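Note to self: user wants both folds in one dump. Writing first protein now.
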Amino acid sequence: MLAGLSDFQQGKNAYTLHLNMAQETMQLFQERNLADIAAVEQCLATGVDEDFKKPKNIAEQLVRLLDDEAVGPSERLRLILLYLCYRGGLLAGDIKKLLAHSQLPPQDGEAIYNLELLGARVEKPLKDPKPPHQPLFPQKLPQQPQEEDVSISRFETNVKLMLQEQIKGTLDNTIFPYTRPYLEDESTPHDQVAQSSLRSAKPTWARTRPVAGDPRQRIIVFIAGGATYSEARGCYEISQQTNKDVFLASSHMLTPGLYLRQIRDLSVDRRRLDLPSDRPKPQAPAHLFERDPSPKPKPPAPPITGMASMNLNNGSEAIKRKPTNETSSATTSETPPPSSGKLAKKEKEKSKEKKKRGFFK
């Protein structure tokens, strides 16, 4: 009976779909050895291991992953780029050894050196006096180790850390300056509100928690050049933790494959990239700028008025004369009576015709 219900069938189909998706995801996770890749990436990105200590034997783990056949080419290139940023540059010989272990094509080697165009250092001398780069937002590391599911997602983006500093009011104004002059006095706290009387203030003792319909503070974050999904997740987590509306805006969303392709394109000839700014400006169709043809001369009007004033009388035309004066009425000219000689000729012709008719009868 339960199998015949529509709601039960829909729930069963949805449950089966989720199980299939989970199984396929776990299969890909194991086939591509993503657990070991994620562990090394977290150490390179954060600079500490699962116990929040300086990672050990990170180079050996990297080489082992580069030699693993289950690791794809994009993952190998990404690991090398992370290792370069972690070490602040490598010797030229070490870079060649990593490329030999990874067996990457030559264009991927160009992508590694294209990091210099983004401000990163690829090669460094044997004795480098330059101090290591300090993070933009230094963090306090916790003392207790975290669980395994959290250990592969320890890295926090700078967008999330920036939002935390902004909400606390400790964001550095020299790095993130205001677009408008800051008018509020810094000596007065943000939460202090001047009130003339206690009766004028609304009672807040009865409100234990905020109502869902109350307006919340909005924070709009715009990232030029593309945002990542981890940054979007950080904005969502800050919104949930602080009960604020955080909006993330960007030109597009970046994926690892798209980011690597853009790094490769940094050394490509600009004419081959077909950038929108280099394309010819769109133009309106040519027919919109053509002039209208000159109007044809009008043909002369037909003599309608003259034809209307014509009369036919016994096969002869008699044209009415126009009145000489506006007050005088129009008069038509009468034809003179025919003469007597003409009448005699007509009678003779009629008599001849009668005789001919009688003869033929």
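First done. Writing the second protein, which came from a different request thread.
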Amino acid sequence: MARQTNSVSVVEKAYGTHQFKVIGYNQNIYSFPIRSGTFNIGGYDWRLVYYPRTRSLDEIDNDDYIEVDLELLSKAEVRVMVDLFFINQVTNLPYSVACTNEPMKLTRKSVWATCDLMKMSELESSGYGRDNSVIIRCDLTVILLPDVPETKSMYEIEVPPPEMAQQFGMLLEDMTSSDVTFEVGGKSFHAHRLVLATRSPVFKAQLFGSMRDTRMESLVICEMEPEVFKVLLHYIYNESLPSMDHGADRANRHEMLCHLLEAADRYAIERLKVICESMLLLDLDVENVAMTLAVAEQQHCKQLTNACLEFMEPPEKMEAVVATDGYNQLKRDQPALLFKVWESSVHRRSSKETRADARMA
């Protein structure tokens, strides 16, 4: 049982509204500030400050303007969002005159100032200034930063990794539950019809198709080596390949991969086919490229075929390949494929020359 600690942090918000009515604002000819009463929102004390008859920041504009500030009175650092309104005293509807789009940080005695909210002349001619009074509404959203949460100790029950792949692999070794036997090159292999049919459409047709023989308990596999069929079964049950390292004998490994590619194509196991292509590509060298090309062409592996042709493109590589036994066998068994090698080489060189001429131009 593994030990684990756990903590939870939650950011919350507090909302509140304060309405401040200023009476006799027009008589304040000296423009001294008028302060609201203290109000508390989110656990912090606030105050509005009203400044009549302030000058515009625009030096050309000589009109008097209204300014309203928000002041934090508490000794704290607070993040807050503000929306400031004038209330139309005819319709009683609010009119937003200033707001913050994102939380701002205020500390004690710091001020959120709003300049040039509205001209005094406009206030007096509209419904916002009435009977020598103005009503200001301030909506606050206070971001409540959480305290450092308490860390609690708890226990976690460790769940073991999935076992199905391992159990299927063990199933291959269990001959007591098998229901079909394959005879390959004088060796017998026990397997399970449902597993094979699930993994390969070819096996499915052989074992459960309309032409199957229900009494048939043994199938003979021709033109395949026992070791190749053994690796094929291992992949079917385990979705992975066994280790195929043969020490310094790299050629044996490459030959096994070629035969396994043929088997994967024969039984339509597409992922195994791609795995073999990828491993053959990594193993590609002068000695085996001709044999690999022959297998790739036969199994319609276009990517592997192109990789082999590109590998042989440089003249020095091609000269070395021509001297190998694999090339001689390719020339003897598939002479038409050599024409494809030559044609590809000419085409690639022509393309390179065309690109070089274009760059020089």
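Dump finished. Worth passing along: The two ends are 72 Å apart (CA to CA).
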